[in-house]
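Sat 14:20. Reprocessing the chain from the morning session after the first attempt stalled halfway. Input below, unchanged.
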Amino acid sequence: MNVLESSGIKMHSELEPKPDARGKAREIADQFETLFMQSMVEGMRKTADMGQGKGLFGEGPGSDTYTQWFDNLMSGHLAENGRIGLSDTLMAEFERIGQIPSAEDAEQESANS
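Finished this time. Tokens:
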């Protein structure tokens, strides 16, 4: 399965001069990194028992909402500011298998346009 099919990005051999192909791929890679970070934050939060077995935000009304907000905001912040490099690795892999043009090729295509 082509990882980028859902975004409309074509294989390198089918690429038209589109400067936004790398941008779409970067967006997908960043979203994946954010989801990965969210999974990590959720796992870490679940282990934060706080000694009473009630979790980080207790068991009262709204605790599930606060929990979800915490996971979303923390994972978004970590993905944006504390990048773990997963997005960059995905971009390198997309280039290697020809799903997007290299950065140099994309620059040349946009300069020629």
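The chain has a mean pLDDT of 76.
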